[in-house]
Structures are given as structure tokens and as C-alpha cells.
Amino acid sequence: MEYNHREIEARWQQYWKDNNVYKCEIDMSRPKFYVLDMFPYPSGAGLHVGHPLGYIASDIYSRYKRLKGFNVLHPMGYDAYGLPAEQYAIQTGQHPEVTTRKNIERYRSQLDKIGFSYDWSREIKTCDPEFYKWTQWAFMEMFNHYYDTAADKALPIADLVKYFEKEGSKGVKAVCSKELSFTAEEWNSMTDKEKSDTLMNYRIAYLGNTMVNWCPALGTVLANDEVSEGVSVRGGYPVEQKLMYQWCLRVSAYAQRLLDGLEKLDWTDSLKETQRNWIGRSEGAEMRFHIDNTDIDLEIFTTRADTVFGVTFMVLAPESKYVDMITTPEQKEAVKEYIDSIKHKTERERMIDKKVTGVFTGAYAINPLSGKKIPVWVSDYVLAGYGTGAIMAVPAHDSRDYAFARHFNLPVIPLIEGADVSEQSFDAKEGKMINSEGPELNLNGLEVKDAIARTKKFIEEKGIGKVKVNYRLRDAIFSRQRYWGEPFPVYYKDGIPTMMKLEDLPLLLPEVDKYLPTESGEPPLGRAENWKTPEGYPIELNTMPGFAGSSAYYLRYMDPHNDSALVSEEADKYWRNVDLYIGGTEHATGHLIYSRFWNKFLYDLGKVCEAEPFSKLINQGMIQGRSNFVYRIKDTNTFVSAGLKDQYDVTPIHVDVNIVSNDILDLDKFRAWRPEFATAEFILEDGKYVCGYAVEKMSKSMFNVVNPDDIVERYGADTLRLYEMFLGPLEQSKPWDTNGIDGVNRYLKKLWGLFYKNDQLTVTDAEPTAENLKTLHKLIKKVSTDIENFSYNTSISAFMIALSELSQQKCTSRQVLEQYLILLAPFAPHIAEELWHAMGNTTTICDAAWPEFNEEYVKESSVKMAVSFNGKARYTIEVPADMPAAEVEKVALAHEGAAKWTEGKTVRKVIVVPGKIVNIVVG
RNA sequence: GCUCGAAUGGUGGAAUGGUAGACACGAGGGACUUAAAAUCCCUUGGCCAUUAGGCUGUGCGGGUUCGAGUCCCGCUUCGAGCACCA
Questions:
Q1: Nucleotide nearest to A750 (CA to C1')
Q2: In chain B, which nucleotides are within 7 Å of a protein Cβ?
Q3: Nearest-CA neighbor of A822 among A792, A783, A860?
Q4: pLDDT digit string (tens) for A192-209?
Q5: Does the model's ipTM exceed the 0.90 cut?
């Protein structure tokens, strides 16, 4: 009987399905373990071999944990809202839901063939009303809460209203868009509309007039993480800054907690670092500079309070509200002209063009420490969105200020001893202060670090400013002018944004005739008929962004069919959070920030019991494509093999990797591939056409896409699973190269051969030999530690070595072979299950127990030790394993080799490392 | 510019500070076969040597150590993240 992967895999996949082998329920008697994959966006192209990499890794871990006795939650679903389906809908008129459903079916059939242990009864689709009801619910809760800085958590907005009624805004401890000041009487006399506008300033989900990333080509705004280098991440279209009235989430309120939470997480350092960069905490001081001859104070933020004595001018962002307030009449014209010239430029142009530009406002500020008068300028190198949109410029110690000062001939005062500022600024934060003495404060002679602390203390005491922490993290813009997303459960009652009631949810996505904006420029939902509440109030036309549905999906898997809560208290208390999360690094500043924010918000409300959603996170590397090339001699239809291509003038052409094997081109398939190659001629080497290769992104246009279906069909799912893991370390990016797959396939065939000889099962009840047990227990130890460390590639090597040892030992012992299969089951579940049953077991191998490692069996009776002289290995000795070091030393020196190497020399030192090496130092 | 990570044969990659290159692919040789495929066996970092064996070798330069791919200092190159963030 041959190893027939097609028959075996189909049969066991059916068996697992029919017997609900992977269905899991809350079970208080067993410890839980939650293993999650980042759910995919079902694209039209289907899965390529790169996609399942992480899924295979998590599946191995899930199966392993189950064998170790854990109750494992391992679900899968789809991130179903997304731009591609909508773009496709715009082009074809096909409803995005139809396309999405089709793509999901395709994904599912591809996933099923790989033999995953998902509990499909918990499947989630973000576009499913049953699911997005809870996305809408969370949004409503965010609307109904504000962030209280005293309690350091979200609290009901109703509490804040009560406070306003009694105290007004005085002493309010809440995160807000801008500081407001009103009395209780003023609050109480406000109209409903005014109250609504005021509360927007505090709500966690709020409508705000904010600068947004507007992408004209996509017709929508984008979040910061959806934009990179001035173009959209999806599609690469230009993005401009635009002031729009949009729904936002006050993610910034959670900046510090998002930062602190990272400490306890078992994530890679690089991922944590990426998030830290994105949050961008900087400690500094906010300081007021008085504008001469006015009653205006300019607020600035600086991390270098020590350099105040070197401030020779100040700069405002062009968008700063202070610009109009302080510009003198003489300078009005020049300032207006400058600001107009800036407005014409997009953010991208401003970024690329690093020319120094700016204009003097005519106003002067007073340096609060030195008392000197300094000019105030406007320049686009100062960003409106960070800090206060105004800076104090210290040209001697900041390269941007330096460039500006040199360009406009402003003075430069060095503040650090020995700093040469004749050519460039001295930006380092070290050295002794000079030139820093004012009427009330003297910093001269202090180290920079101490000078900063001293100045901060001084300005707080004098009331000139205060210590302040700034974050780069901005609030998330939550509106999208698109069709294919969750509708907002919001209507406008006499212009006042109002939330629907929970019992009215889900608010279903309406049908529209076209997926384009309306003629008047409103989002596609503007086309929906009767998009009003029963009372006739208009409903919000924007939809939610992609990250809305993916922010809490891991909670829904715990209790996917609950229609009265996102997750029941019981399910939340049992499953708690994700123990192992596997996915790509591309979500570092998007999904993984939003999810953590969302979870912390729900935590504040007492809806979830863990403050962090993902305890451990592994980033699987990307699988790149390995493209093949043929070389056409220019102006001919003749192709020359790679080794000879240098002798001709050739054009490399991508060739489909599926008609190439081990870089050898299949000539007939090539001729049949495309009509223009039907008459192709070849110049061969050794009778073969050798293709060139390159590592590139896996994509259709490079003809390097490998479909897992083809691999499963030809070699089987077990081979695919093993090979994907064997390719290299999980976290490393690597090219897919089908060439090596024969190796693991051969291994499975050999494994089959160990069980079946001449169609006869060879398993016996023979007692295992000492050798058998040694091989087995070495394997148990290796595989157990490897799985815990996600070094799956070396485990597979260990399986191969163990197999060849067992074959050599002609092992037929049931006991040994069964345990071998259990170890293998997480990696290659189909063949393990098949052989497990062939041996007479009637229950699934998924419920077997992970073998216990026993040190006794692997103990060596003797140990080989390398003997070296001055660190250079010379010969090997074999000694009993338990021989004391002093004895080993004698044996080592007594060896005939030792005589040769120590001849005429004195033995100065003998180093014995038990079981490893003997080193003899002579001289 | 700042931060993080990486660099080992023809290739993918192994090595708790202890004989570098496990395992696999590819390549070369051989067995079986009319032949091919499949399967099995041997060789395979480089250089020298018929063999025995020797020398050399983990991006570069130093250092610590009896002993360094591994630890420390200084570079080079590549990858990733952030970036007029004050």
C-alpha cells in the first residue's frame, strides 16, 4: 500500500468535520488557551502559499496545546469590509456583498484543504449584521463616554453633564479637543445644540473639525496609518490635507496607557518599538512667551527647556491661530502672501521640498528668562498638529532652527561649552552650559540634563509654564465616505447628532443604485432611499473604516452567537484574552493600536476583564516570490539558457514558475504557455534550459504566484504544512521555493514505509529497546522545546533524524511508534491520524496525551570528548559519562596524541567541561 | 537623521561560550532498469595532498577568554519602523 495523500487527507478531513472534533466549549475543568490568527481580508486573488504560513504555525501550536491538556479556542473568520470589493463594485455594479461572499467561499475551500483545526462554528464575518451590531454598539458607548484624567479611565458622559450643571467647566478633569471655560449658569442656559457641541469636545467618539488625509482618487479620508509618505497605502494615490467635519475616536486619551501596557506584553522588541515610535511620547515643558505691546501670550512646547537663553526668534505654523492675532499691519500683506503660497502645496510637496521659507510677522516676544526681545516668524517647518503649533527657536542646538537662522540672518548663540556652531548646529544633549545667565536663573556650568530639570522647576515656580508630556499619537478619524462599511447608528435630530437605541441595532447597510458619491458630492449612502429614522430624521451618510470591525473581533469569537452582548461575562471570564496571536507586522500601527485602545475602553466599562487583548504576539515573516526568467535574444524568438546568456544581447522575461522545475524550463509547456512562444527556439546547456531567478514580491504580474491548492493536490496538505515550516524561522521573511519540497515529501513516504512493508502493517507489541527509547525521548525533548520556542524548522529535522534512526533500528514497537505519531500530529495531522487508526486506535489522535519526557532514557553511558591544545581540537576520547573531571583529565593526558602535543612543553592548565571538551593549555 | 533587527557553503538554513556548516535542496559519482521515472548507497565550505593528513574558514577591524558564529567596543552593507515631532 502506497502513501496516498489524496485519499487519506480527504477521508480524515471529512471525519473531523462529521465528528465535530474541533468544536470547543467552555470547560471549567480544563485550563483554557486561546490561539488566534489575524483574520484575512478575502481578496479576489485567493490564497497564495504565503498566506497560510502563520495559520499553519498557529495550528501546530493549537494542536500541541490540546495534546498538552488545554481547552483550546482556535477560531477563524473574515475581515470582510474593504476597498477592493467596493472598487470592483464601482467598476462592475456587482454588489460588494456578492463578491465578498464568493471570495469567502473560495478562501474557505482553500483553507479546508490544509487541514486546520479551526472551530468553524465560531466563524465571524465583519460584514454580518449579527457581528457589526456590536461594532455599532461599541461606537455608541464611545459616544456616551468621556475620558476622565483623575480616574484615568472612561466614564459616562452623563456624569460630566451633572458636573457641568453644578460647577461648569471649572476644575473639570477630562481629556478634550480644546480647553473650554464656562460657568454652571452658562451651561444651564445653553441650547440643546450648544450643549451637544460642547460635549463633542469631550466624548470619546466625537464629531470634530479636523485636518484629515483626503484621498481624492478614492474619494475618502484615510487614517494616519493608512497613509505612508504622502500616498495611500492601498493603491498609492496622492493624499492631501483638508479640514473636514468628521467622526473621530479619542485614541490620544489612551496614549500613556497604550505605552505602559507594552511593558508586560510578550511581543517582539521591534514591534513594541514600532508602537512606541508611533505613540511618540516626549517629555518637555509648555512655556509662555509674552508678545510685546499686546496682552497675548504665545504658548510653545519644548523638550529642551535648558536652551531658553539661546532662543533668538520664535516660529509659528502657518495654520496657527496666533498668526492673525499678532501680525502687525505693516507685515499683513507679506504674511498673507506667504500663507497663500503654502496652501497651494500638498503635504507631500511640503515634505519633499525642504527649502527654507518663512516670513516675519512684525511682532516681538519677550524671552521670559533673559528678558530680551526676539522676533516672531511664520514658517511651514513648524507643524500645526504637534504641540501648540508654535516653537521657540534655538538655532545653535537644533538643525532646523539653524538652517532657518542662517537663511534669514538671525543670531545664533551657542549654549554648550566647546560646541562649534560655525558650520552646523550642535544637537547632542550633553555638555556643560554656557551663556545661560539671566536676572533670576543661572544655568552656567550645569550638565544639560540637570539644566533641563532646573529650568522646568524654575518655570513652574514662576508660573511661566508647566511640565508637559506630548504624544505624536493622534485621534483616529473614523468616518469614511464609502459604501462598503458599517453604517453609523447616528441620526441628526434638528441638526444634533443622536445615537440610536440598542434595540434598533443592527442598523442595516442600505441598498444603493450605484456605489459612487452622489451628484452633490455626498457619500454613497446619500443614494439610499428612505435613509431616515421613522420620525424622518436623516441618518449619517458616512460609514466606518476598516479597522472598526477588526478591533474587537477576538472578543466575539468567545461567544459568537450571543445576541444580547458582544461577549457574555461568563465567556469573557473563561477565555479572558488571546494567549497567542500570530500575524503580519504590517498591522503594527493600525489594527494592533486600535484593538488595544478598543479593548482598554471596554475594560474601563467593565465589559472585559483583561486590560490587554493579546498577551503574546508572533509576527510571521513574509513569504516572497521566487521569480524565474528566460532570456530572449533581442529581435528573435530564440531563448538562451541562463549560463550562456552573457554571450548574447538578451532581454530577461518573467516566466510562470509553475512550468519550471528546479530552474529547468519545461519546453513544451513553455511553447503552449502563450501563443507568441509557440515557435520559440532554444539554445540549451547540457540539453536543458536553465532559467535565471530573482526574489520579488509574490504577485501575478511576476508570474511567481504559487497556489497552495496545487501543492496540496500534488504532494498533500501534510507536505505543504511541513514544508512551509521547514522553509526557515517563522519570524523571518523568505522566498518561496518549491524546489525543496521533495525532501519533506520523501520523509512522509519513508515514515509510511516504516509502518507498512509489502502492504502489511509492521507494528508489533514488542517491548521497545533501549535504543528505541533513546531515539524517542530525544525527540520528545527536542520537539517540546522547539514548539514552545516556535522553532518548527528544527523540529522537522529532528523528526527526520529520529525516523532514520528508528528505521535503522528496525523498530516495530507499538509503544514507540504511537508516541512518535502523537509528536508528529500537530505538524502533519492527516498521516498521523491515519497511521494512529491503522494501529487499532479508535479515538482521534487529537485527544491523545502529549508524551512525557524521561531523562533516564537519553542518558549516555559514555561521552565523546574533544581534546584540544590551546583551544585547537586535535583528537577525541571516549570516557564513561559519570567519570569525574579529574579522571577525565588523566585519560586525556594519557592519550598518545597528548604526548605529541605536550612534548617539550609544560602543561599549564587542563580544563574539563563535563561531557563536552577537554582543553589542555601548554607552553 | 533617530530607533530596532540581520549578515554562516551553490541554495534554504543548524549550532545553552566548547569538534562550525545539523537537516533539507541542488550538484557529482554509483546501484537497480532496455531506457526514463521512482528508490537506495557514496561524495559535497575552500585550498593543498594519491592516501594518511594538513592549512584555512561564520561581513570588516580590534578586545575579553584556555576557547568566540555566539560576549564587548568600533565600522561596512542590507532590511524594517519613525521622521521638519521642537
A1: B39
A2: 3-5, 11-16, 18-20, 22-27, 39-40, 54, 66-68, 79-86
A3: A783
A4: 999 999 999 999 999 998
A5: yes
